[in-house]
């Protein structure tokens, strides 16, 4: 009986060692998975327009589209998808200033056509001073800033490792905000609003692209001097 007990004990000890090793291996795998999940890029569903747009940008969108305070406004779009789309365009060599990526828009109600829309595209060059359309005034911000009553445009340079399949590149980005409707604001107030919207959107977009030094965009909006 003694010999049997010793044999059983040894067998149980071996089984226990195997079980402990399996548990440790499983724990290690789960730990690595957790680390991997924690370092993943946010999904499109996590980065929503309602979250990424600041209160001042949202208010400016309503003003330039002349949307009354009593009207419900929904902010819709796919910010992360727009950033990924721009990177894909660059890497595929198909980038065009006319091939915009929709960033975010303000919609009356919960659907339908946008009242205001922000878009981004890759640009080839900065417009020369004094050659912008007559609807614009030129301002000193980023690489170039143009503001009209219904349209605002901002050019900024982004250096990011996201481009060129992870090798990194410096690209020129063109951001634009456009309203479908007329505003009751004064021209100066409307120009400030369009510039504020495209600036705040560009700042957020540069974060999604992981541009170095936020693409040179200041931390807070302040109406820049006119050129």
Layout of strands and helices, then pairs:
Elements: H1 2-38, H2 49-52, H3 55-64, E1 73-77, H4 79-92, E2 101-108, E3 114-123, E4 137-139, E5 144-147, E6 151-160, E7 169-179, H5 187-209
Antiparallel strand pairs: 1-2, 2-3, 3-7, 4-5, 5-6, 6-7
Describe the protein.
The chain is an alpha+beta fold. The protein contains five helices and seven strands. It has helices spanning 2-38, 49-52, 55-64, 79-92, 187-209, and strands spanning 73-77, 101-108, 114-123, 137-139, 144-147, 151-160, 169-179.
Characteristic terms for this protein:
disordered N terminus; seven-stranded antiparallel β-sheet; 227 residues; alpha+beta
- Major sheet details: 7 strands, antiparallel
Supply Rg.
26 Å
Chain-averaged pLDDT: 84
Percent range for β-strand residues = 15-25%
Specify the helix fraction band.
25-40%
The total count of helices amounts to 5
Shape: globular
In a few lines, what is going on in this structure?
The chain is α+β, with helices and mostly antiparallel strands.
């Amino acid at each position: 009986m003694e010999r049997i007990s010793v044999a059983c004990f040894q067998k149980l000890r071996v089984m226990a060692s195997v079980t402990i090793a399996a548990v440790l291996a499983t724990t290690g795998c789960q730990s690595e998975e957790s680390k991997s999940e924690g370092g993943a890029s946010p999904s499109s569903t996590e980065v929503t327009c309602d979250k990424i747009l600041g209160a001042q940008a949202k208010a400016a969108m309503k003003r330039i589209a002349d949307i009354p305070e009593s009207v419900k406004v929904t902010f819709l779009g796919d910010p992360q998808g727009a950033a990924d789309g721009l990177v894909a365009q660059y890497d595929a060599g198909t980038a065009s200033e006319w091939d915009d990526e929709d960033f975010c828009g303000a919609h009356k109600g919960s659907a339908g056509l946008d009242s205001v829309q922000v878009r981004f595209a890759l640009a080839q060059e900065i417009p020369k001073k004094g050659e912008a359309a007559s609807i614009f005034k030129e301002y000193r911000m980023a690489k170039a800033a143009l503001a009209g009553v219904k349209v605002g445009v901002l050019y900024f340079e982004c250096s990011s490792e996201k481009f060129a399949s992870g090798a990194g590149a410096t690209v020129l980005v063109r951001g634009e905000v456009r309203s479908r409707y007329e505003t009751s604001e004064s021209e100066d107030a409307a120009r400030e609003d369009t510039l504020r919207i495209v600036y705040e959107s560009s700042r957020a977009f540069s974060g999604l692209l992981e541009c170095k030094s936020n693409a040179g965009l200041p931390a807070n909006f302040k109406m820049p001097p006119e050129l």
